[in-house]
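Hi there,

I know you've been waiting on this one. I reran it after we fixed the sequence typo, so this is the corrected version. Both the input and the resulting structure follow.
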Amino acid sequence: MVHMTPMQKYGASFSHYSLGDHNQIDPYYFEDGEVLDKSQQLARLRETVLESKQETGLLMMCDIVLNHCNNKSEWLAENPDVAYTLTNSPWLTAAYVLDRAIL
């Protein structure tokens, strides 16, 4: 079995666990310059998974991290109340102070 990192569109850091758009697949997984709509992307991924299974017997599993979001994502900008902040989660103050001291 091949365990894939998240395939949703990555944020500016290109971290696979800091997603920029949960509703899109990152263009990284498709050939350079190839523009595919969502249904074409899903069809291409389906083909790849099936080919992998048929040709090598390998199965693929993809991590889906719905709770990981890039701090510059459109979704977070539209829903700021869903993020942890020192205002709505004051118990994080010690961790924030420690992070600032380390960084």
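Quick highlight: The mean pLDDT is 89.

Best,
R. S.
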